[in-house]
Amino acid sequence: MFETAFALSLTQFARSLSFPERLQHRTARNVALEPWRLRNTGLDALFYDVKSVSAEESFYISDALASEGLIVIVPPSGGAMLTICDSITEYKLRGGRDVHALAVAGIGGSAIGAVAFARNVADAIGGPVAAVVSGYGLGDIINETIGGSFFFGWLGHMRNDLEVIDDVVGRPHLGAYEDRHKLALKPRPSALDTDTVETLLADADLSFDLLVGHSRGNRVLSEALYTIKAEEPDRLRQLAKGLKIVTFGGRITMPPECHTVIDVIGELDWFGEINSRPQIDSDIRVPLAGHSTNTDFAGALQVTRILKDILGRDDAAAAAPDPAATPSPEPAAEQPEQETAPPAPLAAVLPAMPDEPALPDAPAEAETAMIEAEAALEPADETDLPEPADALPASQDDAAGASDAETAAPVAAVAASEEPAEIASAAIEPAAEPAAEAVASLEPAPEPRAPRKTGAQATKPARGKRPTRR
To answer: Are residues 315 and 434 in the same domain?
Structure first.
């Protein structure tokens, strides 16, 4: 509440500083309208979020506080300074081609209300917004006296008829005032703010994809669009592609070419209800909200948050795939039934595998195979036959050889297992214990000795050869 009061008092103070200069031009008109303009500025402070206007901007717009048809480029909060444009040409030169949103406020029609409402819209879209000031002139005083300002939905057309009073008395040539000579060619008169909005929308050098209005500003947008439809229908069809229109605080008819129109109204907004068309349903009804958009007061329409929700929902719907547009897969054509051949046997499909050596079925057979393999590999030699069991070694060398032969017998058996015939038996017999292998690796390798003999000799203890006598 304090921020609203500060912004209002600062604007009116700056307005009073420029009043002597304005008295030099159209003295009678400015003296008669000044009290009403200050009153309307106070009304706009109640209905619009004027605390979003900085102190510098309040001083900047105070001199043109009620100038009908004035165009202001309003950036988001914390951005650059707003820009005031007196005409359409100046608007293009000062960056209007980069602006794609237009906002029109109602109620008092002051510049501070128009800028505050456009600032809420700019914060919602994150970009600059063009605001058109509705103003307040002599015609508005008469229109307000007969109730046209209160019932702007039903008696608002009288305001257009009374605009001629300001043209006769004289007023600043702002906005699209240079096109006022077209009034004789129009089926009905129009206000200067409506002419300015119409000229902006009909200009091929400008592009708008979002129109936002509040209260009487909704009627200004509707009249401007219907005028374009009557004068340039092709331009309206081109403009309506991708155009979104959002109205706050009142429902009013828009041209049928504009398909995306969202009407937002508060549940407690009795003023907006009596100025709305009853045959139009509200798209969004805000609970416990009234006609004001000033967030300092309870029950205000939070324009920034509502617009973010609307635009975010529309973007999500546009990004989602359309089920109707997605082509359904065509059913597969029926193929004629064909007789299927029986499956081929597995032996015919798999490649022939090489024969593997058969493993012995029992340990006895493995031992017999090992003995036969040793006999086949070792040539028979009579000199290798051992001596009879009762024979004694002829010398100590023979005794040492016998002990060496007994020691080397296990090693010879291990060496003989490396032959191809021993592969089968090695696969069946358990592996040697790790401890025995470690001990064998540490002992010095004995000299190679003759392998064990086959047959009945294999059962006798191995003996060494008799040394050669010389």
So the answer is: no
